[in-house]
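Protocol step 4 of 5: obtain the predicted structure for the target chain.
Materials: sequence only (see below). No template structures provided, no constraints applied. The aim of this step is simply to have a reference model before the mutagenesis design in step 5. Sequence pasted as it appears in the construct record:
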Amino acid sequence: MNIGLLLFIPNRDVENRVLAAVNAAGFDVTQAQARVLMRVDPEGTRLTVLAEAAQVTKQTAGFLVDQLEKAGYVKRVPDPADGRARLVKVTGKALGAVPVANEELARIEVEWERHLGRRRMAQLREALEMLGEITDPYR
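Step 4 output (structure tokens):
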């Protein structure tokens, strides 16, 4: 199996499990919406930046942000750096999902460490962080 697929399969499982936990806690978001929502900076993010980070078209990002705004997870505010531009910011409702997501992530890490062992889990984390240095354009 190629390395890309080996990385994708556990990532997909993490995304699915976290989203299921968030939805079970009463936060109604789709995977596509969550991928955009996760990329909103605390100070706000322009739609074009969100589209690029989520690797979707500006139109798709706009559609997803519209849905998130209607559901109360984000709001659009004027960009203080450019009065003509708008920023997307998360709301308190969206922030309420963060502890739920973090709890599920912690459960997953415990499960993986039990399966891999403490040393291998630490090595996996270190290797992935090192790979992030050369693969994450938003780092």
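Step 4 remarks: The mean pLDDT is 95. Residues 1-27+96-139 form one domain.
Proceed to step 5.
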